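Example 3.2
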Amino acid sequence: MISILFNILLFLIPLIFFKTTSELFEFNKIITLYIFTILITTVWAVKSIVAKKIIFRRTILDWPLIIFLVILVLSSIFSLDFRTSIFGYYSRFNGGLFSIVSYVLLYWGYVSNMDGEMTKKSIIFFLISTGIASFLAILEHFGFSTTCGLMGVGWNNSCWVQDVQNRVYSTFGQPNWLAATIVTLIPILFGFTLIKKGDNIKVNKLFFFYFLSIILFVTLLFTKSRSGLLGFAIADLIFCGLILFKFKKEFIKKLVIFNIIFVILISIIGTPWNSSIFKFSEFKKSKTENTSTGPALESGGTESGTIRKIVWQGAVKIWTNYPILGTGPETFAFAYPMFKPLEHNLTTEWDFIYNKAHNEYLNYLATTGTLGFISYLTLIGFIVYQLFQNKSTFGISLLAGFLSILITNFFGFSVVSTSLLFFLLPAITLTNKLEGEKKEKLILNNLDNKQKIYILISTIIAIIFLYEISRYFIADIYYNKARLFNRSDNPVKAREEITKALKISPKEAIFWNESAISNSDIAVLLANNNENDKGLEFAKLATYESEKAVNLTKNNVNLRKTQSTIYIKLTSFNSNYLTNAEDTVKLAIIISPNDPKLYYQLGLLEIKLNKLEDAILNFEKAVQIKPNYRDARFVLGSLYKDIGETSKANENFKYILEKIAPDDEATKKMYN
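Structure, written as tokens:
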């Protein structure tokens, strides 16, 4: 039973997504992970109850895992945001305490209940599932999007803002996430193909492994993931090196053929560093013309390596201020604004939200401190040691696959699929050797009353957990509906949906924030229809809900930005709201002191409040920390011009025309 549950889990994780949730891919994968962790753990507990003994296989990872979990618990207790540390950052989800507990339980459940035959089947399920996702990604590259089609918005790529033909991601949601999973699995496919003389394997199985390897590698090239390709290169080098060292020339022919095939595919398709042999002229053009869309850390704008270095500097600053237990698991988005390097303001992503350090190791250092960082590295060390004990071709392939995760995590962060592999690969290397070991079977016959009571208790606990997860899932669907209604200027419908979400999950700050947005919009609509009394009721409700959201997550600067916007929107009901907006932005500056947009917004508010001297100081601060801030410079120059300081005004207008926007017509009219 447990092996079947693992097979289903491993098959679903690469493929599952839903269009009705706020995040289409990772949210649904983490929900799937939670559901199957509960089911597997419950069946495992029932097996132990039936067997009248604890079914638990000791491994060298037990204490490293326990220590790692204990430190994460302590870090969560002292976190900047306890709820985020438990559930994960909303929209990312993976990495919170609950997810790590799930992975650890799955590791122990796997080593305690699986044998060699079960292990091979479970790996095949994951390979097939990722193969299907990769095939869909290849179709995506040629303009046929199965994900868009299944969501009912056409079978082309039009449903995505990102240029998915240029960089595919299929059912994973991001090219680097797909690439990281693929490079972990390709060495494992290698391992399946390296069969010793005398071992029996059907030709059709070998063909399947060869064919799937090519599909996965082609998809890897279509992701254009530099971290993925680097991870593959290192994993391939380690795999080939260890195979040659252990088995000498026994498999050299197959290794050469594999690598020749990959070189040919690289030549035909190209990589981020080299063009296709058929499209050299197009490649040269693309070097100077960026046609892709999306975050610069993935494509376009400031070079991704430059931004990463800046974000990494911020991560180190966080650690130096929270050196022992960090800011709490998954709280990077709340900590980074406090310590954002000024250099970040000069990049194209100066006003982006960074919820990860884009380096798994620095992310742990910043959010779990020295203790968490050391325990994480210690866990990795023990996993590598455990993997290294399996000297078979398959064992070496597992080691190479795991090391590729370490490489891709250095340039990014783990997601559900890679985290699952991170914890299951060391389990697989153990269970793969248990060919003849007898496993306890779940036979519910001749149970005594005590066993029946324990099984009933286990079942009830499982049902409660499943019920709570389903509520969490349903609340997100309501929240997503509300968000979409608000974006389409239908706040009445949005309010209906977000009210349902809040009934289920009243401690979710972003739900209160969304409700505040809808109620403020309703207030404005009523005021426009001369229903001021009703509008005032909704205005008061909106300010209450916005304050509720901020109090639930005090270090979330974006909630404070939304709160100031709501106050500004409602000034027609009460002029004091403008002062409230000013105070809110000042509080936001405390937790995000290097955000030029906040000083710009504060300056605009102070103009409305007739605090011109304060406004000038804040605009000066905005251009000090972001010299190329065109809007702040323009308003600053306009203010100086209004008060008769022409030289200072022209200084700012000249800066815009010479260093920011030479063709800015509005600035040209102001510049004398």
